[in-house]
Structures are given as C-alpha cells and as structure tokens.
Amino acid sequence: MHRIGILALLHESNTFIESPTTMERFHQDVVVFADQLLAKFSDSHHEVGGFIQGLAGHEIVPIGAYRATPAGPIPQSTWETIVTDLLDRTRSSLPLEGLLIAAHGAAVAQHAPDADGNFLSRIRDLVGPQIPIVATIDPHANLSAQMVAACDAITAYRTNPHLDQHARGLEAAGLILKMLNHEIRPTMVAEMLPMVINIERQSTDEPHLKRIYDIANRQLEDPRVLSNSIILGFPYADVQEMGTSVIVVTDNQPDLARAMAKELAQAIWETRDAMQGVLISIDAALDQVESEPTRRFCLLDMGDNVGGGSSADGTLIATALWNRRVGPSFVCIYDPECVQRCGQFAPGQSIQLSLGGKTDSQHGPPWECVVTLKSSHLGKFSED
Questions:
Q1: Within a domain: 383
Q2: Are 151 and 13 members of one domain?
Q3: Which of 275, 302, 320 is a domain's end point?
Q4: Distance between CA atoms of 86 and 143, rounded to whole angstroms?
Q5: How many angstroms separate the CA atoms of 141 and 264, rounded?
Q6: For residue 383, what pLDDT is reported?
C-alpha cells in the first residue's frame, strides 16, 4: 500500500478580460479539503475522480482542491493565498510517497503569467526531487518548461469537447503506482511549436486533428511509450508560453521520447494551414440564415467565448438580429443589473433596459431596448 496525496488547482485565465478571478469566484465553484474532496469528486467524471478510483486499495491523502470558472487573471493576493494554503496543507500531509496533481495549464496570475508552472515548481521545491509527481492538464493549456521540469509525467485530455477527464486521472494514477512499484522510470520530453491553433479549429473530431491523434495513438502501441499528449493551446491567454505543444513520456528512453515528440510536432506543423479559423461576419451569417428559412441556426460570437472566460454580455449578435428582424431568436446575455431591474416587474410588463455591454468595451455597447418580461425564475442548473 502506498501513501499518495491529491491536489487540484484549476483555472483558465483570459487575459483580455478586465474582471479578475477573485477568491470569491473560487468559493462560488470548488474549494474543498480532506474528506470534502473525496465527497466532491469520488463519483465524478473529473480527473480527480479518476485519481481516486485508480488509487483504490492505497492510502489516499486528499489534500485540497481549488477551482474557478474561466474569467480574468488571478490577483496576486488571491493566488498567493491559494498556493500558500495548498503548500501548508501538503507540508502537513508529509510524509508522502507520491503526488497526483490536477492542474489546468492556462492559469495566469497578475504577478506570475505562468501560474501553473509557479504552482507546480513550488510544490516540487517543497517535497523534493525524490517524490514522484504526475499531473493532468486540459489540452487548452499553454505548456511551459517550468511545468515540465516540476513533474515526472504530465498527461492531457485527448478530447475536445472534453470526454476523457476521468480516464486521464486513471492513467495518471496508474503511472505513479508503477513508478512506486519500480516498474517504470518515466522520461518526459516536450516540444513547443511556434504556432497556436484557433479555438474554432480545436475540435478533436475534425479530420485535421484526428490525423494527429491517430499518429499519437500509433505511438502508444510501442510498449516503451507510457503516455503522450497534444496540447492544443489557449489563445485567450496572452502570455509568453501561449501556443501548441506536445508531450511524450517513455520508460527510461529519452531519445525515443525526443524522436516521437518531434514526430508529433512535425505532423502538427505540416497541418498548420488547417488550424486557422474560418470565421465570417455577423452580417454574412445572417445572410445565410435568411437564405434558408426552414433551417435552425446557432450563431456563436467567438470573441465572447464564455467557456474561455469572456464576459457573456456581448450585444453584437443580439442587436444585429433585432435590426434585421431575424427571428424568432433566442439570445443569452449576462447582466445582473438588468436581472435585478426585471425582478421589480411582473410578467407581461414592458421594461426599458440598457442591456449588456457593461463588463468591458470589447463586445459591443449596451443595447438600449424596451422588452416584455415573459417570466422570472432562478434558472439554476448543475453540470457534473
């Protein structure tokens, strides 16, 4: 039986957004320690759930987890509070034989642009070079040399949309157990490419990326290869590390890891033209909508990408739909002020609103409009 700690610190930071990711935002999502961590993640599809399942039969030390939904960079005070807390909790959990860490790979703190590298290296400094550390990351990461140096192995999800978080947690747990049983000696090599994949071209089901993952899967048929990862990159973080990269982990075969990492990197580079986004203007999109009146369309403002930390209060699509009288249409806009104002009226009443466009100046001005309140409810939901 091995004694293995579990840590998680996950955030995707959009540096183009003015709204910072404060401690309140972490508490609105996940801040759990000890048994609370096990209760939160044991039956989840999350990579931490994979850690827990993969360590069955061993002594699991659930140290702590912080997670916040994507938003702006993390203030220095918030980042230092979180990292110091996790360091203190890790120190109190020693001795440990190994550490499994769920990171994101695209966190940005205001004083530490490579926030994940900052966190992982400080954990490594605390526990020393002898304790194995295996980390999981999101493929929407901006991999850094500091992150790689701090870990014995890093593995990233292989799907976007993400479907295999739990599987990657199981993979990480399997790697660390084999290390502790002296069955493997991981050697990890990363290749950083001088390019970034447009977020609109990051679906792993599309042919240009499926070809790359086919090569990666063939590499895994070699028993000397323990793991490999394709890190698509997170273009909404304007940091030095921003871009696409690959990782190959072999069993004490550094030359093989280097050769296979170069093979993956070269395959991506040769496909770079297909990685560019194919985007059209809102007016061109509405022209297509109007030309096919029997079809239903979903219009996405790639500049107001909520999943990437944007404000969700963009008004450009909504006002274009209204001005051209295209509909019926449904548009979702984040605006707490308008929600509060609407709460003062009854369904069926008309309300003058200045809707959206309040978070910053990048996604359209507030929409001055008169609306009819249809209904009012909390609208809460959960995604596990």
A1: no
A2: yes
A3: 275
A4: 22
A5: 17
A6: 66
263, 240: one domain: yes
Residues 56 and 198 in one domain: yes
Strand partners, 229: 247
261 in the same domain as 290? no
Quick: pLDDT tens for 158-211. 999 999 999 999 999 999 999 999 999 999 999 999 999 999 999 999 999 999
Residue 359 · residue 19 · CB < 8 Å: yes
**Structure tokens given for 295:** 């079809």
Q: Are residues 35 and 61 in the same domain?
A: yes
What single letter denotes the amino acid at residue 174?
G
Q: How confident is the model at residue 337 (pLDDT cuts 50, 70, 90)?
A: very high
| Rounded (10°) angle between helices 76-93 and 115-127 | 30
DSSP per-residue codes, 240-255: TT-S-EEEEEEES-HH
Overall number of domains in the chain: 2
Per DSSP (E only), the strands in the chain are: 3-10, 30-33, 59-67, 98-103, 133-137, 153-156, 186-192, 225-231, 245-251, 350-355, 367-372
Please indicate, yes or no, whether residues 267 and 290 belong to a single structural domain of this protein. no
Residues 229 and 304 in one domain: no
- Whether residue 286 sits in one domain with residue 222: no
Report whether 215 contacts 267 (CB < 8 A): yes
pTM: predicted TM-score of the whole model, two decimal places: 0.93
Tokens of 117: 């590298």
Q: Are strands 225-231 and 245-251 parallel, antiparallel or unpaired?
A: antiparallel
Cis peptide before 328 (omega within 30 of 0): yes
Tell me which residue of 176, 185, 227 sits closest to 55, measured CA to CA.
176
* Residue range 8-40, pLDDT digits in tens: 999 999 999 888 999 999 999 999 999 999 999
Give the 3-state secondary structure of 11-48. Answer: CEECCCCCCCCCHHHHHHHEEEECHHHHHHHCCCCCHH
Please, are residues 50 and 170 in contact by the beta-carbon 8 Å criterion? yes
> Residues for the chain: how many in total?
384
pLDDT category at 379 given cuts 50, 70, 90 is confident
Give the span between the Cα atoms of 351 and 174, in whole angstroms.
Answer: 58
Q: Of the candidates 242, 275, 308, which is a domain's last residue?
A: 275
**Tokens standing for residue 239:** 């940091």
